[in-house]
Design a protein that fits this description.
Layout (H helix, E strand, L loop, with lengths): L20 H7 L2 H4 L3 H17 L5 H19 L12 H13 L1 H5 L6 H37 L4 E6 L2 E7 H26 L1 E2 L15 H7 L4 E2 L3 H6 L2 H27 L7 E2 L18 H24 L14 H21 L4 E2 L1 H9 L5 H10 L4 H17 L9 H7 L7 H5 L1 H7 L8 H16 L16
Parallel strand pairs: 3-4
Antiparallel strand pairs: 1-2, 5-6
This protein binds arginine.
């Protein structure tokens, strides 16, 4: 018997009483960080192999560690790993099980390592994989947009500014505008990945370790681009989490704006599109309702992703170097951001190709609202009228059309000529929505021929591989 209270914590040596039960639960992270187990195990495999490589542990000890980790991974994958709050987090749960399984060698795994560099490594391995998943879903959504744009390259719809009818555009052109948003999003993620793919291991608690670690060797085993330059920075940096969440917030903002359009367009008032029934739900009281739940939820979920970004920025703002327990609070917002983002991207990638376009409604909406007024002004300019004067003349034509409840194309030639002698019969070709879009025929504009060319370019751009520094070797690192 000893008068020292029993404490079964891996760090319990210097403690004289066991942890308060509430504090134990309050400080534990295993409930949410257990999802890092595949990355924690991958990091431990690489660390053990490195320790053997520099002869800090024997090849036999390394083999024992790898064998034990394998068993733990399989048990966890089957949902049979019994996670314990008393062991605080994913790292100590796994280490303690390893020692229970293989004895002495298990106790050597943590040589030259700390949970501080370990958790930063786990998080980077996890995020690297999630970035690849997000890029794949973005690409799938972009492919759907190009297919839809190609199908509807010549479909005419009203283009809006201030949500007022502005000029006719093609539906394909509109879809390709969202393609560009998502292309920038994907490029941003690929760029973010470069800063994620840096290895903290070897920084240990904060200052490095007295063991002759070969950090380049470990980095290579884990397919990191390089080991982190500075040990203090390695354990305290969470920029990569914030940067990813910032990319995610912007993607959500794009999806939210697109959602808003789909919701408006699917309404009876617009009637531009139909969303397939499988992406909608009904009302429990109003039998006629078909609600666009998927885009509404995506729009709504944008709030929590933006909120997580704010939370993480605030989490970091007061922290001195190096690691602080505050950093444990980075995980839930990051995990929820990843889950939300992947869910929203998946829903959109599935739904977009299935959007049904009501081209008759789109065309009649494009033909109303004097959408070709600018075409008439441009026509006058080509006849030698100064643009400001042309603007004035067309203003009068619109006034006349409003007063007599007609569209511009319905005014007579005589009426138009009374406003300007420069107007001739050929003007009617470009007062139609078809003439209007056909005339905008240059790189980046809305003419059907330009949309088809842009689709071909977009397909080529989607073929370019994401410039990753190699594939994550999570499965293969533990031979
Ligand atoms: N659960 C901790 C976290 O998420 C792991 C690192 C703990 N390090 C420490 N020195 N207490 O940040």
């Amino acid at each position: 018997m000893t008068d020292k209270p029993t404490t079964d914590k891996p760090w319990g040596g210097r403690f004289t009483e066991s942890t308060d039960a509430f504090v134990e639960a309050f400080t534990a992270s295993v409930n949410f960080d257990q999802r890092l187990y595949p990355y924690d195990i991958a990091g431990s495999r690489a660390h053990a192999r490195m320790l053997a490589h520099v002869k800090v542990i024997t090849p036999a000890e390394c083999d024992a560690i790898l064998g034990g980790l394998e068993q733990i991974e399989q048990a966890a994958a089957r949902g049979e790993f019994d996670w314990s709050i008393a062991l605080e987090d994913v790292h100590m749960n796994i280490e303690s099980r390893l020692t229970a399984l293989i004895g002495e060698a298990g106790k050597k795994l943590h040589t030259g390592r700390s949970r501080n560099d370990q958790v930063a490594t786990d998080l980077r391995l996890y995020l690297r994989e999630q970035i690849d998943n997000a890029c794949a879903e973005l690409r799938r959504l972009q492919q759907g947009l190009v297919a839809l744009a190609e199908r509807e390259a010549a479909t005419i719809m009203p283009g809006f500014t201030h949500l007022q009818v502005a000029m006719p555009v093609t539906f394909g052109h509109h879809m390709l505008a969202w393609f560009e948003n998502l292309q920038r999003d994907r490029e941003r993620l690929i760029d973010c990945r470069k800063r994620v793919n840096v290895m903290p291991l070897g920084a240990a608690a904060l200052a490095g370790t007295t063991f002759p670690v070969d950090r380049h060797y470990t980095a290579e085993l884990l397919a990191f681009d390089r080991p982190a330059e500075n040990s203090l920075d390695a354990v305290s940096d969470r920029d990569f989490v914030i940067e990813f969440c910032s990319c995610a917030a912007l993607i959500q903002v794009h999806l939210s704006r697109f959602s808003e359009e789909l919701i408006l367009w699917a309404s009876a008032q617009f009637g531009f599109i139909d969303l397939p029934d499988r992406f909608c739900t009904g009302s429990s009281i109003m039998p006629q309702k078909k609600n666009p739940d998927v885009p509404e939820l995506v729009r709504g979920k944008t709030g929590r992703v933006v909120g997580h970004l704010m939370g993480l920025l605030t989490l970091m703002k007061g922290q001195p170097l190096a690691y602080n327990k505050d950093n444990q609070e980075d995980k839930e917002p990051l995990f929820d951001t990843v889950d939300t983002l992947l869910g929203c991207l998946r829903a959109f990638a599935d739904m977009v190709p299935a959007v049904e376009v009501r081209s008759d409604k789109l065309l009649s909406a494009a033909a109303s609202g004097y959408s070709t007024a600018t075409d008439l002004a441009d026509y006058l300019v080509r006849q030698g009228v100064a643009f400001r004067d042309a603007h004035e003349i067309v203003g009068s034509a619109v006034r006349l059309a409003i007063d007599t409840q007609r569209e511009l194309a319905e005014l007579t030639l005589a009426e138009l000529q009374s406003l300007s002698p420069h107007i001739a019969e050929d003007v009617f070709d470009l007062l139609t929505p078809e003439g209007s879009v056909r005339a905008r025929d240059h790189f980046g504009a809305t003419a059907p021929a330009q949309v088809r060319a842009a689709c071909a370019r977009a397909r080529k751009r989607l073929e370019v591989a994401d410039t990753h520094g190699g594939e994550a070797p999570l499965a293969g690192s533990g031979d």
